[in-house]
């Protein structure tokens, strides 16, 4: 009898999970429905520091593949590469980005270093021991190195190079957890890329609009814009798939760069590449998001719908990439 067992590997919930953590549960429920339609049997294995128990559960189920939904371990993204490491050792196929690419893209600093080496456009950045290199007439943003979902990120993270008081605060931060990036004041685009037998396909690009933002309020898709439903930021950052005629060359350039990212980093399954475009229409890669959120209301799913794909088709192609 053909093996049709799929294990959901997902981070075990904390005692008081926040919206970004609960999002994994929403994704799992949504994907389960698609798997059932496709004829797969679903199992759940929570992932945490007790690796012997996790390994025992996986060996017991003997799945065809694992749907890797692990987004953190012990409350941090710095251990995100552990789940694909375990699956590689067990020789179990798994969905999404593979171990090496997962490590490179999860670390924002390593990711940006790799982009520069590969000739991909990204903004300048500095580690916390390079604060002396900051220019007084430039704007910057301090970001967590290892976290996704805009954790620890909002407009309070943006500062001016001449702000001595803010820079003094930066010197107290852990250099292993934070870095500084040049702030690009401009438009924001999300490009979703889907794998499959025919290779990567870029879904219709989405632009995040900063609607009715008051003068002086920084345009940033931070934690509140993504997760706090009653916030101004959440309710004034809609996405659009419509462009003016003069934007079409820019959109094509972004699509081309997204495919270059896929090939250069050896990506697989499903990925979202986030961009900033400055006032001179120059694109900068903010980050590469391996295994982005695919909950019903997510930007990734919205892009696949815009492309005319049913969610079962998306899951089928993600599985194709995992088993290829």
Which key features would you list for this structure?
324 residues, alpha+beta, D-amino Acid Aminotransferase, Chain A, domain 1, 3 domains, 6-stranded antiparallel sheet, 4-stranded antiparallel sheet, 11 helices, 35% helix
Show the helix and strand layout:
Blueprint: E1 5-11, H1 19-37, E2 41-47, H2 51-61, E3 65-69, H3 82-90, H4 99-106, H5 108-117, E4 125-127, E5 139-144, E6 158-160, H6 164-170, E7 178-182, E8 187-194, E9 201-202, E10 206-208, H7 223-227, H8 232-235, E11 239-240, H9 248-265, E12 270-277, E13 283-290, H10 299-306, H11 311-323
Parallel strand pairs: 1-2, 1-3
Antiparallel strand pairs: 4-7, 5-6, 5-7, 8-9, 8-10, 8-12, 10-11, 12-13
Give the SSE string: EHEHEHHHEEEHEEEEHHEHEEHH
Q: What is the average per-residue confidence, as pLDDT, rounded to a whole number?
A: 94
Distance between the termini: 20 Å
CATH architecture tag of the largest domain: 2-Layer Sandwich
The class by helix and strand makeup works out as alpha+beta
Radius of gyration: 20 Å
Global shape: globular
Total beta strands: 13
Per CATH, the class of the largest domain reads Alpha Beta
**CATH-defined topology of the largest domain:** D-amino Acid Aminotransferase, Chain A, domain 1
Strand content: 15-25%
Helix share bin:
25-40%
Which spans of ≥5 residues are poorly predicted at pLDDT below 50? none
Most strands sheet: 6 strands, antiparallel
Number of domains: 3
């Amino acid at each position: 009898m053909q093996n049709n067992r799929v294990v959901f590997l997902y981070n075990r919930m904390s005692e008081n999970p926040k919206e970004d953590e609960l999002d994994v549960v929403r994704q799992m429920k949504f994907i389960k429905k698609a798997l059932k339609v496709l004829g797969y049997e679903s199992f759940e294995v929570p992932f945490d520091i007790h690796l012997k128990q996790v390994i025992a559960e996986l060996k017991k189920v003997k799945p065809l593949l694992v749907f890797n939904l692990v987004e953190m371990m012990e409350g941090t993204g710095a251990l995100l590469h552990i789940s694909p490491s375990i699956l590689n050792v067990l020789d179990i196929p798994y969905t999404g980005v593979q171990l090496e690419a997962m490590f490179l893209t999860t670390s924002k600093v390593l990711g940006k270093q790799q982009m520069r080496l590969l000739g991909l456009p990204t903004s300048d950045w500095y580690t916390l021991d390079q604060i002396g290199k900051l220019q007084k007439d430039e704007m910057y943003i301090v970001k967590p190195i290892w976290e996704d979902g805009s954790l620890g990120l909002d407009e309070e993270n943006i500062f001016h190079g001449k702000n001595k008081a803010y820079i003094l605060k930066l010197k107290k931060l852990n250099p292993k957890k934070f870095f500084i990036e040049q702030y690009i004041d401009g438009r924001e685009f999300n490009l979703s890329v889907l794998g499959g037998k025919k290779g990567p396909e870029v879904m219709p690009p989405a632009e995040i609009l900063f609607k009715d933002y008051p003068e002086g309020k920084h345009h940033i898709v931070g934690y509140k814009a993504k997760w706090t439903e009653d916030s101004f930021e959440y309710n004034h950052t809609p996405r659009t798939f419509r462009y003016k005629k003069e934007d079409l060359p820019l959109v094509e350039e972004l699509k081309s760069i997204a495919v270059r990212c896929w090939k250069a980093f050896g990506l697989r399954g499903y990925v979202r590449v986030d961009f900033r475009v400055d006032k001179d229409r120059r694109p900068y890669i903010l980050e590469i998001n391996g295994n982005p959120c695919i909950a019903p209301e997510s930007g990734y799913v919205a892009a696949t719908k815009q492309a005319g794909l049913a969610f079962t088709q998306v899951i089928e192609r993600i599985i194709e990439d995992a088993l290829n």
